[in-house]
Recover the amino acids of this structure.
């Protein structure tokens, strides 16, 4: 089992969700986050006070999947979230040790 | 017999301006003689001579009073509230409304009497206590206007002036926001109202007041309200010290839409403030009315364009700030300058106040949280001096007797200087006293937590 975390541009969320559903991903978790990478922030000016806003709003999606689905999931997110401009985000992959479906008590790949 | 007394009292009241003039020119004995004669002649003429308030004037002044209230409890509160961080929103709203309530009571208890009474030997600076608790003021009592023989109900005059006192103290909140202790602010407000607002008002507007008798022009309160409050806020900001994290942490306004609503309410309410200060619903009020549109619009445009050129973008906050700066600047000038003078005055104020909240503020390094000094202090000074220039008939102003531009500007500057020194000294002494006794500032922990929960036990937004 694999755990995929992707940081994407907020307006790409719907496209990514639809594309993932289409390849058989049955659930994902979304969080509004802020962060910085290579994309530069912007400055805000309130009367005399100037603030540099380094942290930009992004959306983090988390998906738990069967290992064999990994390549397609990565590919799908990459395509759906791509604008070609700096700040498109990153995909992180890690191994997933255990999953439990709370309602039924199922565990492992059955719980995905 | 009662009515005869009333008309005698009224005659004496109407003659007071003449006596003030006499004192200045050293013709006192002669004038007193004339006064006696006039009274002797007038007395048998009975109450037929007693002017009755015009219903139109009365309605206009009640409406104007409401408009100034609109400026304060929703206007200033929202304008300031939007500019603070979300954790301090309610503290600002509470401070403004509580000050309005407190000053209203104090005004009726002793404020009106001290501001507009006759202080005898101290009359150059302050009134007396003869009308404490509004003693003797009935629905039939009248107050004089700028036209001989035209009066308005005194109770309406009391209420109208009450709102000016309240807004002046409420404006100071902006310099102390996000760190002042609520109890300390209320104590300061009551004392400052007593020792700075009342004497300055008396000197500028009451018969016999020092600045009025010396010809200083302040139509609707540029010195009384704006310079007075601006200086108090500046002194407060300095004594209180900077907010934790000032200059390091981002402290952007939490809701500029609130600030826009506040600025808009201020503008609408300001018609009561400026045109209402004419005390009559006539052409003079009309002049103040149109000037309150034009100077404000010019200042908003000037600030916006200057910011656009210097900083690259025209901001909403810049536009709203320019609008308020224009309102401040036209306050002393409203009924005295021509429409084109008002536009020029507004445009100049817009640009100078932009410098006030950026260049000047940075150079001096104080943390006047919401720029009360930069906008009300600086804008008030520009307006007071500008009034001396644009009142000139050659520049479209209404003119004053024996006008000379240099002379009038010097007189205006004297008024500005007296207000700065008076308010500055009173504020410094009061802030220091309060700081040493009850403490002026909340604890560091409370400041970080935010005053809404720390001081008032509630939160502005439970989303």
């Amino acid at each position: 089992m694999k755990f995929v975390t992707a940081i994407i541009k907020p307006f790409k969320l719907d496209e990514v969700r639809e594309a993932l559903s289409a390849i058989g991903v049955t659930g994902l978790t979304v969080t509004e986050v802020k962060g910085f990478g290579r994309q530069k922030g912007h400055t805000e000016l309130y009367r005399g006070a100037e603030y540099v806003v380094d942290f930009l709003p992004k959306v983090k999606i988390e998906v738990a999947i069967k290992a064999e689905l990994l390549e397609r999931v990565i590919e799908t997110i990459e395509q759906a979230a791509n604008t070609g401009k700096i700040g498109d985000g990153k995909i992180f992959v890690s191994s997933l040790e255990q999953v439990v479906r709370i309602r039924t008590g199922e565990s492992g790949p059955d719980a995905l | 017999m009662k009515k005869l007394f009333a008309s005698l009292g009224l005659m004496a009241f109407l003659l007071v301006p003449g006596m003030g003039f006499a004192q200045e020119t050293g013709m006192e004995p002669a004038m007193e003689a004339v006064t006696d004669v006039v009274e002797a002649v007038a007395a048998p003429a009975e109450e037929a001579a007693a002017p009755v308030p015009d219903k139109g004037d009365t309605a206009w002044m009640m409406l104007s009073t409401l408009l100034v209230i609109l400026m304060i409890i929703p206007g200033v509160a929202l304008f300031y509230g939007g500019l603070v961080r979300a954790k301090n929103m309610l503290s600002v709203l509470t401070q403004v409304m509580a000050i309005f309530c407190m000053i209203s009571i104090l005004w009726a208890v002793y404020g009106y009497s001290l501001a507009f009474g006759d202080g005898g030997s101290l009359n150059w600076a302050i009134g007396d206590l003869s009308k404490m608790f509004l003693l003797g003021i009935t629905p039939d009592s009248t107050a004089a206007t700028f036209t001989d023989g035209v009066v308005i109900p005194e109770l309406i005059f009391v209420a109208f002036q009450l709102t000016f006192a309240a807004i002046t103290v409420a404006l100071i909140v902006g310099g102390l926001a996000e760190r002042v202790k609520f109890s300390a602010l209320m104590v300061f407000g009551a004392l400052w109202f007593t020792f700075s607002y009342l004497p300055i008002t008396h000197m500028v507007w009451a018969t016999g007041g020092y600045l009025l008798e010396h010809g200083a022009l302040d139509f609707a309160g540029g010195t009384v309200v704006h310079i007075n409050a601006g200086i108090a806020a500046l002194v407060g900001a300095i004594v209180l010290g900077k907010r934790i994290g000032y200059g390091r942490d981002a402290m952007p306004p939490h809701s500029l839409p609130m600030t826009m609503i506040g600025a808009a309410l201020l503008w609408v309410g300001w018609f009561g403030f400026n045109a209402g200060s004419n005390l009559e619903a006539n052409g003079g009020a009309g002049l103040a009315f149109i000037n309150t549109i034009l100077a404000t619009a010019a200042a908003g445009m000037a600030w916006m364009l200057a910011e656009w050129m210097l900083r690259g973008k025209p901001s909403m906050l810049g536009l709203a700030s320019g609008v308020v700066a224009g309102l401040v600047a036209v306050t002393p000038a409203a009924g005295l300058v021509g429409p084109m003078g008002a536009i020029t005055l507004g445009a100049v104020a817009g640009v100078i106040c932009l410098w006030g909240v950026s260049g000047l503020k940075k150079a001096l390094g104080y943390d006047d949280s919401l720029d009360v000094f930069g906008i009300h202090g600086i804008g008030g000074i520009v307006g007071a001096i500008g009034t001396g220039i644009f009142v000139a008939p050659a520049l479209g102003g209404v003119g004053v007797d024996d006008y000379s531009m240099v002379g009038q500007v010097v007189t205006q500057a004297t008024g500005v200087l007296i207000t700065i020194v008076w308010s500055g000294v009173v504020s410094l002494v009061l802030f220091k006293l309060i700081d040493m006794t009850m403490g002026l500032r909340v604890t560091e922990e409370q400041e970080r937590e935010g005053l809404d929960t720390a001081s008032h036990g509630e939160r502005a937004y439970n989303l």
Summary: The beta strands of chain A are 2-8, 29-35, 42-46, 49-53, 56-65, 89-95. The helical segments of chain A are 13-22, 70-80. The CA atoms of residues 18 and 43 of chain A lie 34 Å apart.
